[in-house]
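Researcher: We're reviewing a set of sequences before deciding which ones to prioritize for further study. For each one, I'd like a predicted 3D structure that I can look through quickly. This is Glutathione-independent formaldehyde dehydrogenase. If possible, include the structure in token form so it fits the rest of the review sheet.
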Amino acid sequence: MSDNRGVVYLGQGHVEVRPIGYPKMVDPSGRPIGHGVILKVVTTNICGSDQHMVRGRTTAEVGLVLGHEITGEVIEIGRDVETLKIGDLVSVPFNVACGRCTTCKEQHTGVCLNVNPSRAGGAYGYVDMGGWIGGQSEYVMVPYADFNLLKFPDKDKAMEKIRDLTCLSDILPTGYHGAVTAGVKPGSTVYIAGAGPVGMAAAASARLLGAAVTIVGDMNPERLAHARAVGFETVDLSLDASLGEQIAAILGTPEVDCAVDCVGFEARGHGSHSHEEAPATVLNSLMEVTRVAGAIGIPGLYVTDDPGAVDPAAKRGSLSIRFGLGWAKSHSFHTGQTPVMKYNRNLMQAILWDRLPIAQIVNVSVISLDEAPNGYHQFDGGAPRKFVIDPHGTLKSA
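Model: Here's the predicted structure for Glutathione-independent formaldehyde dehydrogenase, in token form for your review sheet.
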């Protein structure tokens, strides 16, 4: 078996489906490993983080095979794998984690110390994340498989809910992490910045955690309409009314208990400035509308190098944040990549027991591998969908 195809980054705004090598049991340096498995990819999703690279807003190199949201079937097992077998259906956390270092043992799998020689933390198909080959492909290798993979307990039942379970690799735990670190609890009032898939996953998570009201803000009318259709309050950031004024119109007060940034560094200004890029806008606005002693979860991506930034400071990841405001209000901030394994097993149970219809909430839309470039184009245009690639037609045939 030598054939494999994947979605390859070919420069700013350009991805193609191309032949790529069939996965080998080796790490990015070429060293043979025995702890990996090879998966036949069942679903693999297009993520907003992928879009940052495709837009040319990172230092990603041409030729990168994309894709860090992977669900698959085990078809080959390394000699050291003990808890998995051929045919198992598994969810792959987007974090590559060894399970052996200090941070992994503390459940901080987003910053594993052993999978990336350049910095803490690894991921599949992503710039500066260790060189692990991405999974928007037909087949992919997953290292440290016994530790990383979440096996679905009943394969047939899992396939019945695969459109929901595909969200476990990233966006659902990421949205949940944002809500948890923002302190959402029963009765909370919550503001979510961004109505994309991660924002909608955060809103769904706030609901699951018992929020009294969840408000989603965006400037895309289609995404706002979808958010309202699945039961959330919304604010339109393209209007001249301030965020606080719009929140007050809903709650009777301009502040919320908890806030979550699901936009990140490609943020735009609000109101009459909505056509202008302003990377600190979301963080500053969240400090304004979060009550004293409240918390702000920040799963939205911020990068250390942004070659397409609007000013020299932002190119180095330096933003004009009103940190004094956050300090004065005694805010807590939580940043960084989500440690998926901290949450994915419980979220799987919530899906399997019909507590969390995440596919409906993020509007999962299944496409073929060959349709992936068009999926990137539509997603970049703001389509209110979560594009899920079905490389082998498994979902279609099911």
